[in-house]
Amino acid sequence: MLFADTPAFASHALPVPGGHVLSVQEFGRADGPAAVVLHGGPGSGCSPLLRRVFDPAHWRIICPDQRGAGASRPRGGTANNRSAELLGDLEHIRAQLGIARWVVVGGSWGASLALAYAAAAPQAVAALLLRASFLARPQDVAAFFGPLSLEQLVAELDAPDAATRERAALAWWRREQQLAGTHAAEPQGEALAAQVDRLRVQAHYLRHGCWLQSPTLLERCEAVPRVPVHLIHARDDRVCPPEGAMLLQRRLRGATLQWLDDAGHDAAHPTMVAAMVSALERYAQCGA
């Protein structure tokens, strides 16, 4: 169901306040309707999978790596890296690329950021597509870590010796794999170093409630514009509790919620891919 992975037609390195340089790539049609893809994590970077649910013959697909993530620099940087800065970055990207309004698509943490952005910049949002929404409530964070200690992981990820950092990253990675129901090979070498940097950013956000506690993400829904909003969530998602999707649908006027039975928290699951592709096709047909 995935579309072919076409090469980027434009790549940008955009300096933003606070010493960060954002990597932003554009795929698809330069003259197509714009859609921005918000990756999860925080800190994960915009993988090819996230753009391949879009038809490149129709969409102008904009893929930014958030501060500290992916090809943005400094990788793993947490200074001047909070939700408010990410929201400002999206407006900076939109202005630099000359986009009036765009469809905002996000999964997991990317769905959280998409909602916060729609509340902060309602004039910029043509539609929202949210996969596996995460509310970032204290109970959501606590449930994710289970037997692991977030504070201990934070300390170990900042330890001076690489062995301690890597041990903490692998413990966290294994917990993710267990909850998500995925079975990737354990990262080694440079891939493990990238995991350390990714999780350093994620820990930085989670220990502060992603700076989405006052007001909460549910409270921010009041400011989200009346545009098409479609939520997709798996009933067996153990990373982002399904309850969050139900609460969001109640708060977001006119939002639709599509339940999947067996996709877990796996963005690559065929059921999830099919749901994302179909939702974007509907948006394309209605001119969102």
The backbone outline, from C-alpha atoms, is globular
Report the major sheet: 8 strands, mixed
The beta-strand count equals 8
Q: Helical stretch count?
A: 10
Show unreliable segments. none
Termini separation: 21 Å
* Overall average residue pLDDT: 96
Task: Give the class from helix and strand content and strand pairing.
Answer: alpha/beta
**Share of residues in helices:** 25-40%
Widest beta sheet: strand line-up: 1-2-4-3-5-6-7-8
Rg over C-alpha atoms, rounded to the nearest angstrom: 18 Å
The fraction of residues in strands falls at: 15-25%
Q: What string gives the helices and strands in order?
A: EEEHEHEHEHHHHHEHEH
Main attributes of the structure:
10 helices, alpha/beta, 8-stranded mixed β-sheet
Task: Describe the structure in brief.
This protein has 288 residues and is of the alpha/beta class.
Can you put this structure into words, describing what you see?
With 288 residues, the chain is of the alpha/beta class. 40% of the residues lie in helices and 17% in strands. It has 10 helices and 8 strands. It has helices spanning 48-51, 83-96, 109-120, 138-145, 150-157, 162-180, 189-206, 217-220, 242-251, 270-286; strands spanning 10-16, 20-28, 34-38, 60-64, 102-107, 125-131, 229-234, 256-260. Strands 1-2-4-3-5-6-7-8 form an 8-stranded mixed β-sheet, sandwiched between helices. The protein is globular and about 50 Å long. The protein starts with 9 loop residues before the first strand and ends with a helix.
